[in-house]
Give the backbone structure.
Amino acid sequence: MRFERSHTRKAVALAVAGSLVLLASACGGDDGSGDDSGSTGGALEGRGPINFATGKDTSGNLTNQVAAWNSQHPDEKVTVTELPESADQQRAQMISNAQIKSDAFSVLNLDVVWTAEFAANRWITELPEDQFPDLGKLLPSTLDTAKYKEKLYAVPVTSDGGLLYYRKDLLDKAGVQPPKTWTEMQEACTKVKALPEAKSASCYAGQFEKYEGLTVNFSEAVNGAGGVVVGDDGKPNVDTPEALAGLTFLVDGFKSGMIPKAAITYQEEPGRRAFQEGNLIFHRNWPYVYALAGKTDGSSKIAGKFAVAALPGKDGAGVSTLGGHNYAISEFTKNKATAADFIKFMSSEERQKANIEKTSQAPTWASLYDDPALNKQFPYLAPLKASIETAKSRPKVVKYGDVTTAIQEAAYGALTGTTPPKDALADLQTKLSTLITQ
């Protein structure tokens, strides 16, 4: 989720477009006018400079990746347009650009859950699978996120599985093991906080601001309690005892102080910074945090003091929400052939290996999870692979913007004490039944 990256200037037209889509979204106008048949595809033609629209690059490595392409393709250079840190704002600006059929963006860095929406609205181009021969070498769960109605519309470049970061030094000193259940995590916190050096630290935080990260964390809580947000039959199923147990765990966490009050404002980056500052014992986040938290340049106070475990659940191992990013070609760009080659370049095994070495972001190439050198550098790769393979997808629906907004409003209302958890879930069931069956 997540997702991320450094400030660049934006054209005035883009800023105006971003404002327009935010207004349209507020009025319920982000569904698009296209039907659900998707793009008809066609030849990928046209060569020349292209623009890559992506979230903020907090890793600092995207510049290196793009520079490698540009040095080899001086007549087809890629310019990077960095969008806001918030996933919701990234999506809004991409939709705005598409709704006015602008060719300002050529390649889009899409959150995996946006593929269906963008394909159904014909904002991205159907890709001929025979032009992407390495698809079979990717993790199957990641490739599934790049398809809509069995047709390819994007290529998975990074994946994501939620991980539990924890202060290994403090757990070792307190004599406790990494938790496998929520109860074990609470008990571990009690013991760790008895240490003088951990007295002021909070127990746990994830991403709880009202944005896409809250949909992820809510889904993981529901799945971790044995429930589902949407069942295999494609129907919502959140008004259940299991979903109530998951949401109640988070609500009670805020009430008891296990989760600090400040976490209601946390997206990925604020949470990461809190963990790196030594303010959290446990922190749910994505693989990209590993490299940043481990830096020895003074930016992290916990370098060498943390480790990673699988997410805990109610009665055993938790379940991650599947994250990651897919690269897609805008339907409105002129240089589709160059865009396709850039995607092949960035999704190659060589470039994905170079990226994980610098950023710790999860690759989509299956072979990289078995690479001895990478496993030595990133000892969590084996459990991460298992996390990704067993992760649950968020709802694959055309009206995803409306669905995720409904989930966020219900969860946020419960977390802030505005709505009792049971009422929040009953209302959410009603809303999702309307949105998903339309």
